[in-house]
Amino acid sequence: MIFAAKFRKLCTMKSFANISQFYFFLVLIGALALIHGVPRPSVSETFKASPNTNVFRVSESYAAGYGSFFSSIVWVGAMFDYADVLFDDGSSERLPSIIQQATDLDTLWYQPSLMAGWMIPELPGFSARDAIPFLSTGARRFPQRWQFRLTWAQYILESSEMDLESARDSAYRILLPLTTSSDSIPMYARNLAFTLLNKNGRPSEAVDILVQSYLQIPDRLVRYQYQRKIGDLLARNQVSLNSDSAAFMGAIGSMLDTDPVQAGTAKALLIRMVQPETKNVALLEARHLAQQFREYQSTQLGETR
What is the phi-psi region of residue 65: left when phi exceeds 0, alpha when psi lies from -120 to 50, beta otherwise? Predict the structure, then answer.
């Protein structure tokens, strides 16, 4: 009765402000129906559902023009359900599908997808595998958010469903797009792809892709970090130049920054240094290159004086 009286009163108001209140009230009604009146599928049904199913069609009709608003309301409902699971032993069965609705309603809001990736493996009856669809979607929608790919790769590496070599290869492919991003990505997140590739017994490919990534990044700080990673890959493959190491890395950095021809020569030398069959000859060339670089530095220093 109270609801009906309030609705009739709003319908008879004629000022612009009251009309705005009326529409806002209708939006709230739609939001409540979206949260409480629409049956939710299980998480497996959510991921398999067609966009033409009733659940998604109802969501889209309610959210027309109000996607962010509705998404916020659905997300608040999800947080209440999550609190019930944590503190009152509530059911977690519908929580992933609620979060899925929030991410579908506002595709420009990254937090629900990312938090779902972290929350869902902790829910009773769910695992990291159930969180991967949220992380993969988030990685596609928000390529600048490196947390999606790093968490996704972590779950793959921790998975017991594949052998270690396959897991490393899959995680490497997930992380590879981070290597050429110019955004503020932590060094360990950039370098993990090369480390995984090297651990899988493919050092030549790791060096090749590392140099390619270096050449695509204009940021001088990232290039410096990649030069250090080149030295790390050489050390991991028992390649040591001892006292010539610093001069050699200086020469490699100079060649990579000079022109494509010099960069190609440097990359070819580095690849031969990590291949067992060409390592010894390549080390001799590397020492000669280090000596040439020291002489060049001495000449430059003399001219400056």
Answer: left
Give CA–CA dist 53/51, Å, rounded: 6
| DSSP string of 99-142, one letter each residue | HHHHHHH-TT--HHHHHHHHHGGGSTT--HHHHHHHHHHHHHH-
For residues 29 and 298, the model is more confident at 298
Taken in order 105, 106, 107, 112, is the CA torsion positive or negative?
negative
Domain end residue (candidates: 123, 142, 161): 142
Q: Is residue 26 part of a domain?
A: yes
Same domain, 228 and 296: yes
What is the count of structural domains for the chain?
Answer: 2
Contact between 126 and 92 (Cβ < 8 Å): yes
Overall pTM > 0.85: no
Cα 40 to its chain centre, rounded Å, is 28
136 and 210 housed in the same domain: no
Q: Residue 198: CB partners within 8 Å, gap ≥ 6? A: 206, 233, 236, 237
pLDDT of 130 > 90? The answer is yes
Q: What is the pLDDT of residues 265-292, one digit of tens each?
A: 999 999 999 999 999 999 999 999 999 9
Residue 186 in any domain: the answer is no
Specify whether the CB–CB gap between 174 and 135 falls below 8 A: no
Token reading at 111: 């937090």
What range defines the domain where residue 26 resides? 18-142
